[in-house]
Amino acid sequence: MKILITGGAGFIGSNLARKLFERGDEVVLLDNFNDYYDPKLKEDRIKKFLKGIKFKLYRGDIRDEKFLEKLFKKEKIDKIVHLAAMAGVRYSLQNPNLYYEVNVLGTQNMLNFAVKHKIKNFVYASSSSVYGNNKKLPFSEADNVDTPISPYAASKKANELQAHVFSHIYKLPTTGLRFFTVYGPWGRPDMALFGFTKNILEGKTIQVFNRGKMSRNFTYVDDIVSGIITVLDKNLAYDVVNIGGDREEKLTRFVEVIEENVGKKAKRKLMPMQPGDVPSTVADIRKLRKMGWKPTTRIEQGIKNFIAWYQEYYCN
Ligand SMILES: NC(=O)c1ccc[n+]([C@@H]2O[C@H](COP(=O)([O-])OP(=O)(O)OC[C@H]3O[C@@H](n4cnc5c(N)ncnc54)[C@H](O)[C@@H]3O)[C@@H](O)[C@H]2O)c1
Fold it and tell me: Whole-angstrom Cα distance, residue 189 to residue 210?
């Protein structure tokens, strides 16, 4: 199969590219290498992390229809994993229009091209943030998610609606995966694990939001990749599926594991809750489990792997 991964130079996209290549798929990557975080990390994922892996890389923007036209003319794509997006809740509060343009209009372009080129399956990244301040835990796909609390969350909810229209009208198979806090080597600098590790190593204070009263179903990137592949192979007519780790971890425990691996104590500054953020995200993952998937990496191992990578990449 020839698989197009949008956001292919990103954290999850590059990890997925590796796995798909290893199992024999042809991989085409699309990315605009924007500077939401240091583009050098994106370049290094391509140059270093994907070294020895065969793939085609297209540098361009999912908002650019002419660029997409050329790509789809050149490549006979079988399936799409659409991960390109402006990610990150906080930045979306300052740049709501950008999130609308990239995440909503960009996704619409991808859906249009998917239909035009008779794509066999369209898997895309949704997010646990669609659950907003959902009071009922764990978060289930059956819960109502009509009350997002950030432009980012609204854009991801919109993607699920857009996909539904195209599955319904054009019979395009689509599956949206609601990712729950993904972490691991080659991760994103704007995420907590990255910032905590950096600051602890440099002896700087870390900000612990909601005074540490936060919990997450942290999900190791390899488990995300195996979940993407699970639904990619299924060609479901239309579905939206949670994908998260199977343990609710307290933020305080998360920080302890970082400390253990870094070998240094954190200087903590307890902070109030941030706007747009939620205190707890716990995933009901029974639906994806029934499809044969299960998460296998606990934070003790996952954080260890992340810190080994971080020290090799930044400290050598
Ligand atoms: N990492 C998480 O915890 C998490 C959680 C929920 C959802 N998600 C979603 O998963 C997907 C991948 O996330 P990630 O963590 O790998 O983020 P990432 O930022 O590392 O990857 C996204 C990639 O998309 C590219 N991109 C952005 N706008 C683009 C555009 N207009 N045209 C072409 N490329 C563009 C970026 O350059 C980047 O390389 C995103 O859709 C994100 O919203 C991630």
Answer: 21
Q: Give every CB contact of residue 118 below 8 A, 6+ residues apart in sequence.
A: none
Domain 2-184+218-247+282-296 in this protein, CATH class? alpha beta
How do residues 37-85 score in pLDDT, each as one tens digit? 999 999 999 999 999 999 999 999 999 999 999 999 999 999 999 999 9
- Among 45, 83, 224, name the best residue to mutate to test ligand 1's pocket (greatest count of ligand atoms within 8 A of Cβ): 83
Ligand 1 atom with least separation from CA of 102: 31
Instruction: Sketch the domain layout of the chain as residue ranges.
Output: 2-184+218-247+282-296
Q: Which two tokens stand for residue 151?
A: 């432009």
State residue 294 phi and psi, 5-degree precision: -150, 145
Distance CA 230, CA 219 (A): 16
* Closest by Cα among 224, 230, 228, 229 to 291: 230
Q: What are the pLDDT digits (tens) for 219-237? A: 999 999 999 999 999 999 9
pTM of the model: 0.97
Low-confidence ranges of the chain (pLDDT < 50): none
